[in-house]
């Protein structure tokens, strides 16, 4: 057995029998203690070139003083100390506990380190081989292995629990009296033996300071050359440190051990910043710049598909970018932060760097973002996703993110530029969508003269739902981003939509004017009256958000509906005009053909009105009802015919029957009962000339009965007094009288009873 495993203590004795007999407990523990003692006796246990800060209770010599201070005073910069060059103080010697290794970081210039480690491992391996446990001792071996495993796991857990940032205070190792040559120091920097290179740089810097003090103002050429060499070496050292810091999160296994000396060099150089011989500019600030460069490389390394190859190129890229940010900050939180003192604020520095670098990255992406979906993805990522639990609010980054800002550091005006660009694109897409609506109307209906479809028994074109769905979709998407953006988007949509009624009307007239006066032409008008009425109701839902824009569209839609209804009204009036002119004539009294034509066209109007939604159907039917009543009764005032030989009774009967049929048709058109009643109550003769005209049609032109009727009219007018009547709703007020009032007939006044409300 190797000597390294021997122990004179009685408790370390091991008895092995050939039959696999008993073994005394504690063999593995004894082996571990022997290894620990070997490590403690090794000169490496002192911490290499950088020593930890010791307390008054610890034994051993004090660390060498910093040459920059007075003799005998230890260097206590406001910085901390951990393994590698700066070994962490884990336990006081007074506790009697063995030091637990946190992997020592050795200088590459020490030739004995690798040999010592290899020798120690070989001795351990030979010791294990010499034990030669037999199968009969399996239970006891299992107990030993179990105990060992538990102890190892316990040590690992303790090691994880003691992870802390470097201590701020540290002790500078002894500076060499004579520095290495410039080439040797530069070689140490290139091979990343940074601690030794830095100590020799400090020694060279001390020589330069001493020679400068001796020379005074007269600086020889040799001193200038040494200052130039110092600047060159310091520049190389800073460049090497920047590269290590920049790549520290990309290659943590390679660079993590170098970060401890890097941190101490930065601390020491910042402390000596006022002394001659060093570099201009703060080392800590240079470290922050290096962190930013590393973050920039990370961001640039996130894959970005060309737009031509992937329609979702931006959304995919942003998802990858968010994932990369979280993973990188998790590594900083879990690994890198322990290699720096608290004053470096490592996690905060990385977070701020990501805020700045990602903002710059998005600025570069902005010119490529032209589609609405990509603009939405970018705005949503900036305003919502970046702050959410998917990225900066990730639970894996807590509680370190608790006091950190989660806002991106965007360049001035970028967010407003993106929002304006989004609204402009909404306008463009909305205009294209409305153009497509008109094209579909032509393809589906106008071109092939197809009849419009019905929805709940009303003629309807689905474009109003398509338009509303488009506007509402844009509103909902923009609301997820920003309330102000939602208002701007709805305003943009309504501004474009305001021009749509006239555009559709123009295209409809261009394609379908030849259809007039066919029933299909009438159905198209009713379809667009219904559809624009529904679209107006949809847009009224945005009244509180964009009142001015909603009112603008409402006016345009309203005027289109009025024009469409006026066309239907004029067409009906034109159709029935010749038949109404032949009412109250000699032919009318004996022939019903003209009335039948009038009735058929009114019946067709009723069928069409049944396809129109309220309230426009009531409005159209009321106006046409008034027109037919005025024209039908107005024929009495035109001196076309005077009843004789008691034909007035036949005429009165015919008027009652015909008007009753017409009235039933208008009632079927959803005509308001109140409006119809008011019209008939106000549609009584209110002037003497109208009454005389009616008497003429009756044939009662003189005599006592004629005078009594006129006298009764005078009494009624006196009784009403000055009570005004709406002249626009007075039926007889719109009728012209062309009758000879000097002629008389015997037509009974009862022929006008059909105008009374109770008939």
From TrEMBL:
It comes from the Eukaryota. One of its GO terms (biological process) is exocyst localization. It holds the Pfam family Sec6. One of its GO terms (cellular component) is exocyst. InterPro entries: EXOC3/Sec6. GO terms for molecular function: SNARE binding. Residues 1-115 are annotated as: Disordered. Residues 1-14 have a biased composition (Basic and acidic residues). This is Exocyst complex component Sec6. The lineage of its organism: Eukaryota, Metazoa, Chordata, Craniata, Vertebrata.
């Amino acid at each position: 057995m190797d000597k390294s495993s021997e122990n004179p203590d009685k408790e370390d004795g091991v008895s092995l029998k050939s039959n696999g007999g008993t073994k005394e407990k504690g063999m593995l523990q004894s082996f571990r203690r022997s290894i620990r003692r070997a490590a403690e006796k090794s000169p490496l246990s002192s911490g290499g070139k950088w020593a930890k800060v010791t307390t008054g209770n610890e034994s051993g010599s004090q660390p060498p003083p910093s040459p920059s201070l007075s003799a005998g005073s230890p260097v206590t910069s406001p910085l901390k100390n951990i393994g590698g060059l700066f070994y962490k103080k884990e336990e006081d010697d007074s506790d009697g506990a063995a030091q637990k290794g946190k992997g020592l970081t050795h200088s590459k210039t020490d030739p004995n380190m690798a040999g010592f480690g290899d020798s120690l491992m070989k001795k351990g391996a030979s010791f294990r081989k010499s034990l030669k446990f037999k199968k009969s001792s399996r239970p006891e071996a299992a107990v030993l292995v179990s105990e060992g495993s538990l102890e190892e796991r316990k040590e690992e857990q303790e090691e994880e629990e003691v992870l802390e940032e470097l201590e701020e205070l540290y002790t500078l190792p002894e500076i060499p009296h004579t520095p290495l040559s410039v080439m040797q120091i530069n070689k140490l920097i290139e091979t990343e033996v940074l601690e030794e290179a830095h100590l020799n740089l400090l020694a060279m810097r001390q020589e330069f300071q001493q020679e400068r003090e001796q020379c005074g103002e007269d600086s020889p050429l040799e001193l200038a050359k040494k200052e130039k060499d110092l600047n060159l070496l310091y520049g190389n050292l800073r460049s090497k440190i920047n590269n290590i810091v920049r790549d520290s999160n990309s290659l943590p296994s390679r660079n993590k051990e170098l970060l401890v000396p890097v941190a101490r060099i930065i601390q020491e150089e910042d402390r000596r910043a006022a002394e001659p011989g060093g570099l201009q500019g703060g080392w800590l600030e240079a470290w922050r710049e290096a962190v930013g460069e590393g973050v920039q490389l990370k961001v640039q390394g996130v894959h970005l598909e060309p737009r031509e190859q992937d329609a979702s190129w931006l959304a995919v890229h942003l998802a990858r970018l968010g994932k990369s940010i979280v993973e990188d900050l998790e590594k900083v939180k879990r690994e890198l932060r322990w290699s720096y003192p608290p004053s470096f604020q490592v996690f905060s520095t990385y977070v701020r760097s990501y805020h700045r670098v990602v903002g710059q990255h998005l600025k570069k992406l902005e010119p490529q973002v032209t589609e609405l979906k990509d603009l939405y993805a970018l705005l949503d990522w900036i305003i919502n996703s970046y702050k959410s639990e998917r990225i900066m609010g990730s639970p894996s980054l807590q509680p370190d993110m608790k006091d950190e800002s989660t806002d991106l550091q965007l360049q001035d005006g970028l967010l407003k530029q993106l929002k304006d660009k989004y609204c402009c694109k909404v306008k463009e897409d909305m205009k294209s969508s409305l153009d497509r609506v008109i094209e579909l109307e032509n393809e589906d209906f106008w071109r092939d003269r197809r009849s419009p479809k019905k929805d709940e028994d009303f003629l309807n074109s689905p474009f109003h739902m398509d338009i509303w769905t488009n506007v509402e979709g844009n509103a909902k998407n923009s609301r997820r981003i920003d309330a102000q953006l939602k208002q701007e988007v709805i305003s943009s949509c309504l501004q474009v939509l305001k021009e749509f009624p006239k555009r559709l009307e123009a295209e409809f007239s261009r394609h379908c004017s030849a259809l007039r006066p066919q029933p299909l032409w009438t159905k198209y008008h009713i379809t667009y009256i219904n559809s624009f009425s529904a679209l107006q109701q949809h847009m009224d839902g945005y009244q509180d958000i964009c009142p001015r824009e909603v009112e603008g569209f409402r006016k345009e839609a309203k005027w289109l509906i009025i024009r469409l209804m006026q066309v239907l009204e004029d067409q009906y009036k034109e159709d029935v005009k010749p038949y109404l002119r032949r009412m109250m004539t000699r032919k009318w009294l004996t022939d019903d053909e003209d009335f039948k034509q009038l009735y058929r066209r009114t019946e067709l109007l009723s069928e069409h009105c049944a396809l129109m939604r309220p309230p426009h159907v009531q409005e159209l039917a009321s106006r046409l009802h008034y027109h037919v009543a005025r024209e039908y009764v107005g024929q009495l005032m035109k001196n076309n015919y005077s009843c004789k030989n008691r034909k007035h009774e036949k005429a009165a009967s015919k008027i009652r029957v015909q008007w009753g049929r017409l009235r039933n048709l208008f009632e079927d058109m959803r005509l308001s009962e109140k409006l119809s009643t008011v019209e008939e109550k106000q549609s009584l003769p209110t002037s003497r000339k109208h009454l005389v005209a009616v008497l003429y049609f009756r044939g009662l032109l003189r005599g006592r009965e004629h005078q009594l009727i006129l006298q009764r009219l005078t009494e009624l007018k006196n009784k009403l007094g000055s009570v005004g009547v709406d002249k626009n709703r007075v039926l007889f007020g719109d009728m012209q009288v062309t009758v000879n009032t000097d002629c008389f007939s015997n037509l009974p006044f009862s022929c006008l009873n059909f105008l009374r409300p109770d008939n």
